[in-house]
Specification:
By secondary structure, the protein is α/β, with parallel strands linked by helices. The strands form 4 sheets. The protein has an 8-stranded mixed sheet, covered by helices on one side. The relative contact order is 0.18.
């Protein structure tokens, strides 16, 4: 079998590694000509860590990731701890893997280097896929340059604006949630004097929340700040903003957090609109399927977007290895993955509502529905039953 993947993001590279690991020929086409450092911090909960381990990259992940000892929810006015979770050795004991936080670019580099080392010609840059065409024997991928390539299976890992999905399922507009997010990276040396109650935390207030955590061995502090806004903002995460705009929204918050925001370099502040993507009824057609954000883009409140994309790739590769009939492999892939990703989409949306923090003082009173309470961390993409 020969497989073409569109998109060299985290999901596309993880899928390619899982396919190559099982002896399946794979080529990844990426439209950009140079893979540069993009994005900011991401969380890898134990389910995602186990997936990376299954690709043989556990040691490499540990070398670039940060493992915080504790994580929790703080009050926006005075920083007091409302809820605290053990993120040290407890995840390893309970779920079989660590809870990590790291720069997206460091994980991307880890996956890319591993793939290039194992299959040097697998990644093709500057190759924009604009369409595909099915035949009785396979699928032909068409490029913006005018040429084409035939393959046995096409996997769209090309993100929220997926070209493959739009052709396969037709365009569908997501719903703006009236919430806007800012992200930023602050060099730790700028804020060494600050003493925050927890290094990794979510702060909540009526209509607003802000998460922060260290990455790159504590050299950088990553934050994401979210507030309610009626005016539309572009979906994605690379629209330039300013620390001043962000400070105007969060002006009455805990003073150390305001100092953190004020220390953001002017070129490291971005904003984007948060859009709700309802689950699709299917991800697949004849010899074509989707994975990652192309299949199930989700709001960021549970920090599971990258995890779901990586899990997709491993389960899909296992299905293609186990079932000689491609249609059976793709139907099994959807049957195994769709309930989990749809749950994450729905729970992320609900968690965003809880984190609006209409009454932060009572947040510690009720039992909390979160990633652990709904069983996300136990999952292992490399061993989950396929039949």
């Amino acid at each position: 079998m020969e497989v073409v993947i569109v998109g060299a993001g985290l999901g596309g590279l993880a899928t390619a590694l899982a396919l190559h690991q099982r002896g399946i020929n794979v080529t990844v086409f990426e439209q950009v000509r140079h893979l540069e450092e993009v994005g900011a911090g991401i969380t890898l909960s134990p389910n995602a860590t186990k997936a990376i381990h299954s690709l043989g990259l556990g040691d490499g992940l540990a070398a670039v990731a940060t493992q915080v000892r504790a994580q929790g929810v703080l009050h926006h006015q005075d920083g007091r701890i409302l809820v605290e979770n053990d993120r040290g050795d407890e995840p390893l004991k309970r779920y079989g893997a660590h809870y990590y936080q790291l720069h997206r670019a460091d994980l991307h580099e880890l996956l890319l280097c591993a793939l290039v080392e194992r299959a040097p010609a697998a990644v093709q840059l500057g190759r924009e896929v604009i369409a595909y065409e099915n035949s009785t024997t396979g699928v032909t991928v068409k490029f913006a340059q005018g040429d084409s390539k035939s393959t046995d299976l096409l996997i769209g890992c090309d993100g929220i604006r997926s070209t493959i999905r739009n052709q396969l399922l037709g365009p569908r507009e997501p719903q703006f949630t009236n919430r806007v997010a800012w992200r930023g990276l602050v060099p730790s040396e700028r804020i060494n004097h600050l003493e925050l109650p927890l290094a990794s935390a979510m702060m909540i207030a009526p209509g607003k929340n802000l998460g922060l955590y260290p990455i790159r061995n504590g050299q950088l502090i990553n934050y994401v700040a979210i507030c309610t806004r009626m005016d539309w903002a572009e979906e994605g995460w690379n629209l330039r903003s300013t620390p001043e705009e962000l400070l105007a929204e969060f002006h009455d918050w805990y003073p150390p957090v305001l100092e953190l925001l004020a220390a953001t370099p002017s070129n490291q502040c971005f904003k984007w609109g948060l859009f709700d993507h309802a689950p699709f009824e299917t991800w697949s057609g004849d010899r074509v399927t989707l994975a990652g954000d192309a299949a199930h883009a989700m709001l960021p409140y549970m920090g599971q977007g990258a995890a779901m994309a990586i899990e997709d790739g491993i389960v899909l590769a296992r299905c293609l290895e186990q079932f000689s009939d491609t249609a059976e492999a793709l139907s099994t892939y959807e049957r195994v993955r769709k309930p989990r990703t749809s749950l994450c989409q729905q729970e992320s949306k609900l968690k965003g509502e809880r984190w609006k923090g209409d009454n932060p003082d009572s947040y510690d009173k009720p039992a909390h529905r979160n990633e652990e309470s709904i069983g996300l961390f136990e999952y292992d993409a490399a061993t989950v039953r396929l039949v």
